[in-house]
Design brief:
This protein is an alpha/beta fold. It has 3 domains: 355 residues, Rossmann fold, CATH 3.40.50; 138 residues, Acid Proteases (Cathepsin D, subunit A, domain 1), CATH 2.40.70.10; 206 residues, Cathepsin D, subunit A, domain 1, CATH 2.40.70.10. 21% of the residues lie in helices and 24% in strands. It has 17 helices and 32 strands. It has a 7-stranded mixed β-sheet with strand order 3-2-1-4-5-6-10, with helices on both faces. A 7-stranded mixed β-sheet has the order 28-27-22-25-30-26-29. α2 links the parallel β4 and β5. α2 runs parallel beside α3. This is Putative nucleoside-diphosphate-sugar epimerase protein. GO terms for molecular function: aspartic-type endopeptidase activity. It comes from Botryosphaeria parva (strain UCR-NP2). Belongs to the peptidase A1 family. InterPro entries: Aspartic_peptidase_A1, NAD(P)-bd_dom_sf, Pepsin-like_dom, PEPTIDASE_A1, Peptidase_aspartic_dom_sf, PRISE-like_Rossmann-fold.
Amino acid sequence: MVIALGPPQRAGSDEARRDRIIISSRTPPKTHWQDPRIEFVAIDFLAPVNEVIEAMQHHCRGVTHAYFTSYVHVDDFKLLKEANVPLFETFLTAVDTVARDTLERVCLQTGGKYYGVHLGPVKVPLDEDDARYEDHGLNFYYYQEDFLKAMQQQRRWTYNIIRPNAIVGYTPGRNGMSEALTLALYMLICREQGEKVRFSGNRYYWNCVDDNSYAPSLADMSVWATTQPHTANEAFNHTNGDVFFWKFLLPRLGAYYGVEVLDENAITAAGDHEHMENDFRMGEWAQGKKPVWDQVCRKYGGNPEAFDWGTWQFFDWAIGKSWPTIGSVTKARKMGWQRCDDTYETWIETFRVFENAGVLPRPQVGAKGKAASVEFQAGTPAKPYRLLFDTGSSSAWFVSSDCTDASCPNLSGYARVGYNASASSTSVDLDSYTLIPYIDGDGVGGFATQDVFSTPEGVTPALEWNQTFLAANESSWRFITADGFLGLGFSSIAENATSTLVETLLWDGKLDAPRFAVYYGTNLADNGTQNGLLTIGGSHEDTYVDGTVAYVPLRKESPYQLWRAALRSVNVLAARTPNATVTVRNGQPPLTTDPEGTWPTSNTTWPFYGSGAAVFDTGAGRISVPDEIIDAVYFNLGWNVTKLMNGEERMECQHLNASWALSFTLGEGAVEDDVTFTIRGDEFTEPGAQCMPPVDNSGGNGFALIGSAFLQRHYSVFDFGASSVDEYQPKLGFGRLKKEYDYLYQ
């Protein structure tokens, strides 16, 4: 409820508002307003009326305008009257008693259920003067409106009734009907599980015209209606002023979250124009999904409690109808109400408010790369395992057969193969238990083990060797579509008693050359169907590279730990003239196709004066620039990173184009020996993927993290330079892909 001392500002006027606005609910809100006029009073309007009057006495004397928006929801519509009738009667009796001499207008918010839209087919459009249907005494809105009108006839104050239709808006906690939050939870969980979104209603409603009420617009109408003399004692429908079809709206909302929405062919429920019918029940789908939501919050932000705020059964009703429920706003239009809202935009704005409040995760900043996996065999007899290869770590591990659903939860949809030491005659327990924490908060724990590894069947040459790894009986990696990790950093940071697979082969003299190379392929699906190639002991640049591979030595360290090069500088280059593009030159700074003598829109370089470093990490999806330049990078591209993070601006796909590029210059010796690697704006996109802000900040000064968003655009060579640790001269090489091997051209 909102109780105003003095009339609210009239819509469109410059009149000053009064100095106090009293807001009341049963429990104090978690959100605190900066407006000094707002005063919150906790009142339970289901308490005895004399107690409510007593609670109001001090705060609400002098009230001029009272707005009732309270509602107690239960999924059984027949039970709504029991709580909602006394709720309003107590409120109105109390405020009328306390402020009878000053009260000017009372506003009651009801809704589409006034017309019986929740029960079955109705006449559309819904008009304010439609005759009441036979409710058998169950429609609590009738009781509320009758009570309001009866009391008003004995008073000087007047009233308004506002009837919204399917409200889309933000609340700072649980409420009974939250379409936007529920749909966002559903889509984010589907995205996390790699699932496509299905419409849970029926084919009729998928193809049926519908409408919504945007909460801020609903508030505006309430103020407008209660501040106009000619609108006294009138009821008004509220909708956004447009209509939509779910078959068009839902895919657009899915694109915001980067999920694919299945079309009508995936809907089995027909909808018979008489009864509710759902293709599946959201309430049943949501069972057991809380751990997935918790993982979303850990990875991307958001409030873990929000899952319990989802109104799954209500959402089933909202889109399970088999009849239209369009409301008419003609009466309000004739009396001066002018606001219109684009329904799609109201959904997006509502998502963003939830994001800004920390309820939903904010959009990911940084192009999302794909995890790549490779198969090896382990044990005697040999058994195949799929491992994600990760140059940002150095230990190999499998989930073990000792894992339980609790200790190694698996929500990936991939049936993991657990390593069973007792089933292998060559397994050796190295008597060491180790925990491995990862930078994003996930981790594993397991026993250091040695067993025979071998190359997969059909791979030549066929090799066997003894490999150390962890047999993990604890893992929080719920969503990886693999049996474990293959660390490809340096053994100096591998866990106790283990070494990296590549260095084990290198030290055993089994490799033709002290290097490995990565080609991600043209199929980047994170499901084991990738067509890339991990080459150990050599490289195939002649096959994949357009031109030559440019090499840069690693930053001098003792011992070497990660594939880390010295970062000389970062540059943003943006062309000025229309249709001009950036030309990428592998190993050299890029150029623009601007006419000679034209200064680019941006050609800004941030040097790091010997303190910068860039780690190339196949286990990271994004490209991250040093913290101290993130704002400046976006500024030079014409964007505000804070507004992008807050949802005030949106990254449109047309912004990711060939007119600009981001470059990293690497080297710590003579400047003329530096090497520059570039990724152009249009290379941050993937066919069919959501367009996201291209980079984020790394979490450290002078530190850049270059993940698969860059690596999958190149053929990458990781060269140790020698077979002995004491003689290592490691270097990194990158070559631009030939078109036939580049996923952007497929």
